[in-house]
């Protein structure tokens, strides 16, 4: 037995190979994406647009940092710290090149629940008011930021645990309608939380189930206590912000640098408030003292972690889902890949490390990311440059913001949420593509409004899975025998030269969020492999016959798929006879596949499509209207391909 064990150990040792330097290097590049793009950074082409974007981003980071800190029920200066440290951490570990991480409205709103529950406003008089140990702030303010930092720390730890468990592959369960409804509902909550500042009403903190309705009930009961000066200043600020931002959007192609209206408004409002002494004359609430500098790091209070567990889970899930959708959107727009699991690590570290520097929970924000798009940012260098200007504000400019009216800051928050609030327009899209997705959007939004963002998110995911499980048993699949007979008929009628350029693929299952990514990965792999001219004809035909797509699996394509087709123009015929039902994610995947193949010079034709699929694809994407792409049968599609080929030959002959 001893000799057998030794022999087995020797065999195992022989199979184990020591890690090569290249493997270690690749591992570090995967975990530190900055090592991938920083050495290739082009100073001449990228530095100027990144600098311009960084300056504009710094304006947003400062204004939103102050705003979201107040939303999180902590002192405004901690929002400036939350705009600095998470951005640096994400630039090192994150893969989204156009994602601006920092303070975030949804995570701030969630952490505010823990802050107000554990350190309520009523306890202000019970704390020591003469203890100014950190930056001249009272114990009350330090206790509040301690709770918010604990939420950030535990939320980051949860995200890092999810990274270790490789749960990024499960993010396909969170569909686009669920994300859209959840973020829209959460944005509605944020707007509601700012009503007291917009109207100048003194009101207690209201949260919990149906808290949304209780807030408006309180406002209508105390409508006579509305401060007219605050209301007029809020309306004026909102009108100015909306008009100038719309003008910036209209003329962004003609003007190289957009007007930073947020910064102009803050300066103008602070100066006007200082000159007219609105704080004392009209009783207008202002931001107050903002201390200089950054305090030394301090660990969050670990004794309250169990008390903030619910909020930490909300921050971890909501922050990650919202940030990942922005990262995937930028990756799709600018043709690069994002690893879902690496994003767990990046955002986890962006919450854990800054929590030691008095930071509130962080995530990527839609407004800041859209700002990077519009100003032409190229890499995360833009975010790092913005951090330099945030540091200048922290050390030099911060005290000048003392006179900034709270109603102006609330107006900036409300207008900044425009991108989320206009997602109501998505309802028309979901109604035309898949009415079940429309119903999921409505129900998820209602749950988010009535309860909270994390509850709405969980409800949307569970509801989506339950509906798909209920629909799958009624799905019919296409027999592979029929597909072989069809291919045999095509082979006998067409020339070998034509058949070698045509790939016929049958989709034998419903196309929903569960298998949409897998379908896209498998089809692109088949197209790229089939375009290799070294393949013999029999191998290509065999590939066509044996293509079956797994309905309940999810694939991650790590390869860059932007390279052009290496050989002659070929055609792809998708037989959709087995595609019995679909959702918005599935239709979007088909449209993206069509556009991707079109950019590679591959013609795509869809056969045996239902009327609802044709309507959904036509509405969802910018399809080629000059050439027919939908056919009643595969044979009709093949005949069209043959006719187009003959016309091209005649055209080439005429040119010669």
Automatic annotation (TrEMBL):
Q: Does the keyword Transmembrane helix apply?
A: yes
Q: Which UniProt keywords apply?
A: Membrane, Transmembrane, Transmembrane helix
Q: Which Gene3D superfamilies match?
A: STAS domain
Membrane topology summary: Multi-pass membrane protein
Extract the PROSITE patterns matched here: STAS
For this protein, the record's CDD domains field holds: STAS_SulP_like_sulfate_transporter (cd07042)
Pfam families named in the record = STAS, Sulfate_transp
Subcellular location(s) of the protein: Membrane
Q: Which segments constitute the STAS domain?
A: 492-641
Which coarse location class applies to the principal site listed for this UniProt protein? membrane
* Chain ranges passing through the membrane: 66-93, 145-165, 203-220, 226-244, 304-324, 344-367, 379-397, 403-424, 445-469
Q: What name appears for this protein in its UniProt entry? A: Anion exchange transporter isoform X2
Q: Which organism is it from?
A: Mesocricetus auratus
Gene coding for it: Slc26a7
């Amino acid at each position: 037995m001893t000799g057998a064990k030794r022999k087995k150990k020797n065999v195992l040792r022989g199979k184990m190979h020591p890690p090569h330097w290249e493997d270690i290097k690749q591992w570090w590049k995967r975990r530190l994406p900055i090592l991938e793009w920083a050495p290739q950074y082009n100073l001449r082409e990228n530095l100027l647009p990144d600098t311009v974007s960084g300056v504009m981003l710094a304006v947003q980071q400062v204004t939103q940092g102050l705003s979201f800190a107040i939303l999180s029920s902590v002192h405004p200066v901690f929002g400036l710290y939350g705009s600095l440290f998470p951005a640096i951490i994400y630039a090192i570990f994150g893969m989204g090149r156009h994602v601006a991480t920092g303070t975030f409205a949804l995570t701030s709103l969630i952490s505010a629940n823990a802050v107000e529950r554990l350190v309520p406003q009523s306890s202000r008089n019970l704390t020591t008011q003469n203890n100014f140990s950190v930056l001249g702030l009272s114990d009350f303010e330090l206790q509040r930021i301690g709770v918010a930092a604990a939420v950030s720390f535990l939320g980051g730890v949860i995200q890092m645990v999810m990274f270790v468990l490789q749960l990024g592959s499960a993010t396909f369960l969170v569909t686009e309608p669920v994300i859209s409804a959840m973020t829209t509902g959460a944005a509605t909550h944020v707007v509601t939380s700012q009503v007291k500042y917009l109207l100048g009403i003194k009101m207690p903190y209201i949260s919990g189930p149906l808290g949304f309705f209780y807030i408006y009930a309180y406002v209508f009961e105390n409508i006579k206590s509305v401060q007219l000066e605050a209301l007029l200043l809020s309306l004026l600020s909102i009108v100015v912000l909306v008009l100038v931002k719309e003008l910036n959007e209209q003329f962004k192609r003609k003007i190289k640098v957009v007007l930073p209206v947020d910064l102009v408004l803050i300066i103008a409002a602070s100066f006007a408030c200082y000159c007219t002494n609105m704080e004392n004359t009209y009783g207008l609430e202002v931001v107050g003292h903002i201390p200089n500098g950054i305090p030394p790091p301090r660990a969050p209070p670990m004794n309250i972690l169990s008390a903030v567990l619910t909020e930490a889970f909300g921050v971890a899930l909501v922050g990650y889902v919202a940030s990942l959708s922005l990262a995937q959107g930028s990756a799709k727009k600018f043709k690069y890949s994002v690893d879902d699991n690496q994003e767990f690590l990046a955002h986890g570290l962006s919450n854990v490390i800054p929590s030691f520097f008095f930071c509130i929970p962080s995530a990527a924000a839609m407004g800041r990311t859209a700002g990077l798009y519009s100003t032409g940012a190229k890499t995360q260098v833009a975010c790092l440059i913005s951090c330099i200007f945030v540091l200048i504000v922290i050390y030099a400019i911060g005290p000048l913001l003392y006179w900034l009216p709270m109603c102006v800051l609330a107006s900036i928050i409300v207008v900044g949420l425009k991108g989320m609030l206009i997602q109501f327009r998505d309802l028309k899209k979901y109604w035309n593509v898949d009415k079940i997705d429309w119903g999921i959007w409505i129900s998820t939004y209602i749950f988010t409004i009535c309860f909270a963002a994390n509850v709405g998110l969980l409800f949307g995911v569970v509801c989506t899975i339950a509906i798909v499980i209920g629909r799958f048993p009624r799905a019919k699949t296409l027999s592979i025998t029929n597909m072989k007979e069809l291919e045999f008929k095509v082979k006998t009628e067409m020339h070998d030269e034509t058949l070698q350029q045509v790939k016929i693929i049958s989709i034998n299952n419903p196309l929903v969020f569960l298998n949409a990514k897998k379908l896209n990965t498998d089809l692109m792999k088949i197209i790229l492999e089939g375009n290799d001219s070294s393949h013999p004809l029999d191998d290509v035909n065999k590939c066509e016959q044996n293509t079956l797509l797994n309905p309940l699996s999810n694939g991650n394509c790590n390869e860059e798929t932007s390279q052009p087709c290496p050989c002659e123009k070929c055609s792809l015929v998708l037989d959709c006879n087995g595609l019995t039902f679909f959702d918005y994610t599935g239709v979007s995947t088909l449209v993206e596949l069509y556009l991707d193949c079109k950019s590679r010079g591959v013609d795509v034709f869809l056969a045996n499509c239902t009327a609802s699929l044709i309507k959904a694809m036509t509405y969802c994407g910018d399809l080629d209207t000059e050439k027919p792409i939908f056919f009643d049968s595969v044979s009709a599609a093949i005949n069209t391909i043959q006719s187009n080929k003959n016309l091209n030959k005649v055209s080439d002959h005429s040119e010669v």
